[in-house]
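How a chain folds remains the central question behind the approach discussed here. In the encoding step, the backbone of a single protein was reduced to a row of integers, each denoting a local shape. We regard such an encoding as a compact summary of how the chain folds. The sequence in question and its structure tokens are set out directly beneath this paragraph:

___
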Amino acid sequence: MSTPFKIYYFEDLSIGMRETLMKAVMDDDVIAFADLSGDRNPIHLSDHFASKTRFGERIVHGLYTAALISTVIGMYLPGPGAVYLSQTLNFRAPVKIGDVINVVVEVIELVEKGRRARLKCECLVDGKVVLDGEAIVMVPSREQANRAPAAASA
């Protein structure tokens, strides 16, 4: 993705549209997420603690991985103006520090009433699904976007 973001209006969307994002998760990302969220569970931050768990090493916060779905929805498909209504998350496998997460968001249903889009969301590491679920978002119409500046100046 070369542009900083994309904007799709409800009228621009079609079933099967998809957008992807790849992100290598670094140690600094995990530490920053722990600081931001307050989740300082040692399974994410302590090599010593994590080595004694069933994972054998530190793992990335599940919601860090889920936040990458939000990045795609908020920045690329549908993009700025889309508003989350719901998100289901199924955590399938751990993500380790250094893993490259491939996030895929696909339009699977469009509902004209209320301009709702249902999106299939997957996060994969080395082709294996580590997280999946569905999001429902409200998407602005082109008409709304064209009216917004006039309403703001009134």
Remarks:
- The mean pLDDT is 94.
- Helices lie at 27-37, 42-45, 47-51, 62-75, 142-153.
- DSSP finds five helices and six strands in the chain.
- The first strand starts at residue 18 and ends at 24.
